[in-house]
Specification:
2 copies of one chain form a homodimer.
Chain A (H helix, E strand, L loop, with lengths): L6 H11 L3 E2 L2 H6 L14 E4 L3 H14 L3 E4 L16 E4 L6 E5 L4 E4 L5 H7 L5 E2 L10 H6 L7 H4 L2 H4 E7 L5 E5 L11 H5 L8 E8 L1 E2 L3 E8 L3 H13 L6 E5 L1 H11 L8 E8 L1 H17 L3 E6 L2 H12 L1 H7 L5 E8 L2 H17 L6 E4 L4 E8 L4 H20 L15 H8 L2 H12 L16
Parallel strand pairs in A: 2-4, 3-4
Antiparallel strand pairs in A: 1-2, 5-6, 6-10, 7-11, 8-9, 8-10, 12-14, 12-15, 13-14, 13-17, 16-18, 17-18
Helix pairs in contact in A: 1-3, 9-11, 9-14, 10-13, 14-15
């Protein structure tokens, strides 16, 4: 235990939370950044919170003495969002894991923040409804809201920005507010819901979410198509979207990623850019959409079409995507993956990826690309030798170069990973004068600066 | 001219804007609330702004002396949003009416705030794209963003909350910021875009918008169906949405509204609740959707199906909806319509409308209902005798009762009209402790309180 926690606070937390207030090194380490390349910075203590009242009590106690509060879901964020650079108390929300209500007629669910997306979908199994967002990790829904997560289905179902109807949150002064309502839309005042979504816990702790659900599609079909170039794949997607072909997922793997998958799983795909698609709808609508897409793809030199209707076939086809992280990691055993993402207008995507691949090659890096093409969003896993300082520096320089490139193309420094610690300097470039207004909001709502400090805003803001 | 405008400001504005700075009574009156029942409160002066730089100069000059700035688009807002209760300078953005760019591959457009939705769609005519939101009035897009407008197509295409990708805005200190980007999604920092959307000009003046467009549907078909009760109509819509039947518009007219349309246009519709629907898609998909809907409607006692595919047939079918305002007004010649809206979870809509109809009858009011059923949003036109104070008081009491009812059902006091002056007291009830945080944001971004004062927040907040 460091001395950053005042004894008064330590005693108060121990009295309030008993053995759910923990200060052991192991649990503190477990709550520092785990899936990111950013060095872990453990909190001084961890509290396992069981209710909104407990979170409010915790925040109130920390506010009194100006100690930081760091909200924690599953620890799967990628930019150091759960690090504690200034110490403080991590509030682990995983015990708040109840689905509080499912309103079938309204197609919404009210959940606690520790419910994960797969847990929610398991709960919904017999309702005919599902929660469509899939960021890859089995993240908590509170964490997904806080980082404005999305993933493979955003092209059809939107991001957390679109699917969160209402929130309950503990604000930095310990007060509890409710934002939004279960109504589908509202013109009632400032959009506090959208302000808390993506705020990464810097403006308050989300303690309850009301989420839009979707009807389970009557049928699902998957399709994979190879292309000679990234540009041909992107052109196909642009034309399909312009033609209103209904697509539920549109994933791109570059040739390096396909090679990684082949090496791991022996699926024998052509080692050229690959699109993986999913169609949701009635069998008639899907058949029509698939044929429309096929015609556009053929016009753009698409080949090697493979379709799948049953769950087993689909999973086999999508194995390339699902195994990608491990397949890529296996390209260079012992390496550490630096994960980053950018998002550009889709018309710029081919240029962005092509320039990125050249820049990666010029720097002698290994950095396969996989993207949510329909949104213009793509991910890199840059595989670096953790002990090679020069290579790490080249990778860091490359990430900066890529972020600047995306911003210069009218895009954003992150489509879905968030800012955390890792992208603060890029947010500053992207937001320009807007940073000052973000800082003003932060100062107004959190005058003591206790909520997840050192994230999103540059320290000088 | 009142003496609320300091002479220094008057001289500076005259020097900067020449004859586009106007203080005549007629033009001031034209810029006070025009389409609302709220009494007009004209500004002290009007400036016709032609550029962002001009808006920034205007706001800067007003900020120096603490004089209010009231942004104005087309004046079609319904809750007194353009009134000037504390005087000040109205900035009329209608001269900023250029479409700056259309990016066909990205399906977005960059527009100045004075472009109206029909002007944008006229500009897009040959692109295969369109801007889908239709709030009824030919509002300016800056005004639609500021009031978080939506309308008949929101069930399919979302509201201004969803379709605004990026903004340029002049903030209360005269600085110009850009929020968001042309990327389809972003996890980069606080969502200033969504904070300005729906802020009704109280946090800044929107001077440019980047908007998502949609591909023009291959085909459009309309359908009308009568139901014995509002509940049967609502049940049909709930089941259709749960069954993922793709619907682009779902409008409900209550029996009084249908009667009004019959009286005006002689269309001879059964005087019972009516659903008007529109399907967008391929002919195959539309045929399938229409048949799925028909089966669900028949199960819920729907009858009198009428379909239309050509534009002329569709317009004839939708005439009932398009003429509704005039048809309703004609029910009571010389009356003044008090327009209000609420929005509830769709499962509560039948209860809400049924209770509303009973409450209207109990008060001896005439107040037909039309709703965007898919969103749980409906509108009232309460027809009152402007000279009958008792009736006006009953109407005002009824509006309060209805807002409380909607909030108690988990809904919101306004689905798409906004708060303005008219709904401040209801927002206070709806937002609870959140009001304090809205006020903190307002104070942080607009410490002098010059941006459209007297709107959204209760005066004591």
């Amino acid at each position: 235990m460091t001395d950053r926690l005042p004894q008064t606070l330590r005693s108060a937390l121990a009295a309030r939370f008993g053995d759910r207030f923990q200060t052991g090194q192991a649990i503190r380490d477990q709550h520092a950044a785990t899936t990111t390349w950013i060095a872990p910075q453990p909190p001084d203590a961890v509290v396992m919170a069981q209710s909104t009242a407990e979170v409010a009590a915790l925040v109130g106690l920390c506010a009194e003495v100006g100690v930081p509060v760091i909200p924690f879901g599953t620890g799967t964020s990628l930019e150091g969002q759960v690090n504690a650079p200034m110490g403080g108390v991590c509030v682990d929300l995983s015990p708040m894991n109840r689905v509080l209500a499912v309103h079938q007629d309204d197609m919404d669910a009210v959940v606690q923040p520790g419910v994960t997306r797969t847990a929610l979908n398991a709960h919904l199994r017999d309702t005919g409804l599902f929660f469509p967002l899939d960021p890859g990790a089995d993240a908590s829904l509170g964490g997904m809201a806080s980082t404005r997560a999305s993933g493979t289905t955003a092209v059809r179902y939107g991001t957390m920005r679109e699917v969160v109807l209402a929130l309950e949150a503990v604000m930095p002064d310990g007060s509890v507010i409710r934002t939004g309502s279960r109504a589908r839309k509202s013109a009632a005042g400032y959009d506090l819901t959208r302000l808390l979504v993506g705020a990464e816990g810097t403006l308050g702790v989300i303690t309850e979410l009301t989420l839009r659900l979707q009807p389970q599609p009557e049928a699902v079909r998957a399709l994979s198509v190879s292309f000679p170039t990234v540009r041909a794949a992107c052109e196909t997607v642009i034309l399909a979207l312009q033609s209103a072909v209904p697509l539920a997922r549109i994933e791109l793997l570059d040739a390096t990623s396909v090679g990684a998958v082949n090496a791991r799983s022996g699926v024998g795909l052509p080692e050229s850019p690959l699109l993986l698609l999913e169609f949701h709808g009635s069998p008639t609508a899907i058949a029509e959409a698939q044929e429309s897409f096929r015609l556009i793809a053929v016009d753009n030199e698409g080949s090697g079409f493979r379709a799948a209707s049953t769950t087993e076939e689909r999973n086999r086809l999508w194995k390339a995507r699902h195994d990608l992280f491990w397949a890529i990691s296996a390209l260079r055993p012992g390496s550490r993956p630096i994960s980053t993402d950018v998002c550009v207008p889709v018309s710029w995507l081919a240029d962005c990826i092509t320039q990125a691949e050249a820049a990666v090659a010029a720097r002698g890096l290994i950095a396969p690309i996989a993207g949510h093409v329909g949104d213009g969003n793509f991910h890199h896993q840059i595989l670096v030798d953790p002990l090679d300082e020069a290579e790490n520096a080249r990778a860091a320089e490359y990430v900066g170069w890529l972020n600047d490139l995306a911003i210069s193309m009218g895009g954003t420094c992150t489509g879905e990973h968030g800012i955390g610690q890792g992208k603060r300097r890029y947010l500053e470039r992207e937001a320009g004068a807007g940073i000052r207004h973000m800082a003003a909001i932060k100062a107004a709502l959190d005058p003591k600066g206790i909520m997840n400090p050192g994230k999103i805003l540059p320290s000088e803001a």
